[in-house]
Amino acid sequence: MLKDRTAVITGGVRGIGKAIARTFCENGANVILCYRSNDEEAEKTAAELSALGTAVKVIKGDVADPETAKKVAAEAKAEFGRVDILVNNAGITNDKLMMRMTPADFTKVIDANLNGAFYMMKEISALMVKQRSGAIINMASVSGLKGNPAQVNYSASKAGIVGMTLSAAKELGRRGIRVNAIAPGFVETDMTSVLTEEQKKSAAQNITLGRMGQPEDIANAALFLASDMSSYITGQVIGVDGGIIM
Ligand code: NAP
To answer: What is the pLDDT of residue 194?
Structure first.
């Protein structure tokens, strides 16, 4: 479905980003994976995905730094000549009740989750505009749609992702670029591994399908939004949450 296309996936070396990268490679895409610090996981993922037969490149860089987006765009252009798909997946949490949350706790999450996605969209969409085609997928969260205690920083960043997705979709639609978001519910990754078994069980009780999501559940939605199967879909937020919000 993505034969010979090039995809940039931030936070692509573990968790949801890695599942998206694997699904894209299995469907013929070359991938550029951006990560912040986990060198060991980056090497392991690059080796694992290269075995699937398409090109895999990893780039270390903090998405909260605008220079990272410039570097990724320049390297993508030099190596592949184009970028067809951008997945803004990198994200962090720093959960605290608001009364204990410092301005730095708030800003750190906004910098990584929201500003980082903006820097990447700005640089990569400039390449896509020249191509007059592209698909951008931004990772939101149910937390940005319905709120969660101890997550005012994270919810604000993810609600921001939704607004940014809609505006970018309107700006870029006539240039052949589609911009959509995915809002996952609870997905089993390192991000949610900090929850106790009891918390996971209680979270699952609010999920209509009765289970936590797997990274592959999100990857399948990303494949749809990245491919021509969704060529008439833009400016949408697709909930992949087992029915938490309905
Ligand atoms: P994860 O397992 O913690 O992985 C996060 C990835 O993002 C890692 O590869 C990490 O790099 C990278 N990253 C984090 N901050 C970065 C930065 N500043 N610059 C570059 N890379 C950075 O997270 P996940 O659960 O897969 O979540 C992926 C996305 O889905 C996030 O946007 C998250 O908010 C969203 N989401 C997750 C859930 C869930 O239940 N898991 C639910 C809703 C939404 P390193 O490996 O180098 O640390």
So the answer is: 86
Q: Which residue's CA lies nearest to atom 39 of ligand 1?
A: 187
Say whether pLDDT at 205 is over 90: no
> Ligand 1 centre and the CA of 174: distance in Å?
31
Segment 9-62, tens digit of pLDDT: 999 999 999 999 999 999 999 999 999 999 999 999 999 999 999 999 999 999
Q: Which residues pair with 181 in a beta bridge?
A: 138, 237
Burial 12-35 (b: 16+ CB within 10 A, else e): bbbbbbbbbbbbbbbbebbbbbbb
DSSP helix/strand/coil, 70? helix
At 97-114, the pLDDT tens digits run 999 999 999 999 999 999
Sequence-ordered alpha helix ranges (H) in 115-227: 116-131, 142-146, 152-172, 197-205, 215-226
- Calculate the dihedral angle through the C-alpha atoms of 179, 135, 18, 199, rounding to the nearest 10 degrees: 20
HSE-up (13 A, CA, CB side) for residue 114 = 19
Instruction: Specify the ligand 1 atom closest to the Cα of 15.
Output: 26
- β-sheet bridge partners, residue 57: 32
Atom of ligand 1 nearest to the CA of 14: 9
Question: How many CA atoms, within 13 angstroms, populate the side-chain half-sphere of residue 220?
Answer: 8
Indicate the angle between helix axes 152-172 and 103-110, nearest 10 degrees.
30
User: Per the confidence metrics, is the pTM higher than 0.70?
Assistant: yes
Cα 230 to Cα 227: distance, rounded to the nearest angstrom = 6
